[in-house]
Design a protein that fits this description.
Helices cover 32% and strands 26% of the residues. It has 228 residues and is of the alpha/beta class. A six-stranded mixed sheet has the order 6-7-8-3-9-10, sandwiched between helices. Helix 3 (96-106) crosses helix 4. Pfam families: ABC_tran.
Length: 228
């Protein structure tokens, strides 16, 4: 599913974000990526959905060699990767329905399948009744649910969630985690970067800890392991 072999990432300014990372994430896993700020977590996540490319090493996602991927192949790889951000990144002038449907329009799905699937995923995230609402009319938790609906609408094999509960209150955060667990139960691999100690320690999943660009811990049913 996701394989990193001796991955290094050095930015043009000389910053070394990742150093010799080796990791394999299998299909249907739920993995937390934890570590101090500036440890390399965001770079780790961006490599998966090809926002960045490794400086050295081999990275394979869904059978594609990310480092050697031709530009014309990038959209095809991203169709199988849903991304959820901390700041939602919804299009402010589009309704909840239109934000989700847009992800299907990009891959030129039929209008009939767009209508059916968009309402299906809005129902899954509990927002079918808010389909015609603009982002500004939704709470933070509702906006994140729309973002998750958008991420899963094309049935991706992997969801990369970068601090998905970072801007949410505790109660709303638990609702988002329940939703992500349900999506994982349905067969989607989830890789989630987080600083939320309570969630990691309560919903025990695989934990990969990154410090100064290196993996220092990789545990099944692990704990957060840092003070917050």
């Amino acid at each position: 599913m996701i394989e990193m072999h001796d991955i290094w990432k050095t930015y043009p300014d000389g910053t070394s974000a990742l150093q010799g990372v080796n990791v394999v994430i299998d299909r249907n896993e739920f993995v937390y990526i934890v570590g101090p700020s500036g440890a390399g977590k965001s770079t780790f996540m961006k490599l998966i959905y090809r926002e960045e490319v490794p400086t050295k090493g081999q990275l394979s996602v869904n059978g594609f060699n990310i480092g050697k991927l031709k530009p014309r192949k990038i959209p095809y790889v991203r169709r199988n990767i849903g991304v959820v951000f901390q700041d939602f990144r919804l299009l402010p002038k589009l309704t909840a329905y239109e934000n989700v449907a847009f992800a299907m329009e990009v891959i030129e799905a039929s209008k009939r399948s767009i209508r059916r699937r968009t309402m299906e995923v809005l129902d899954l995230v509990g927002l079918k009744h808010k389909a015609n609402s603009l982002p500004a009319q939704l709470s933070g938790g509702e906006q994140q649910r729309v973002a998750i609906a958008r991420a899963i609408v094309n049935n991706p094999a992997v969801i990369v969630a970068d601090e998905p509960t970072g801007n949410l209150d505790p109660e709303t955060s638990w609702g988002i985690m329940k939703l992500l667990e349900e999506i994982n139960f349905r067969g989607t691999t989830i890789v989630m970067a987080t600083h939320n100690k309570e969630i990691v320690n309560s919903l025990r999943k695989r934990v990969i800890a990154i410090e100064r660009g290196s993996i220092v811990r990789d545990e099944i049913r692990g704990e957060y392991g840092y003070e917050v």
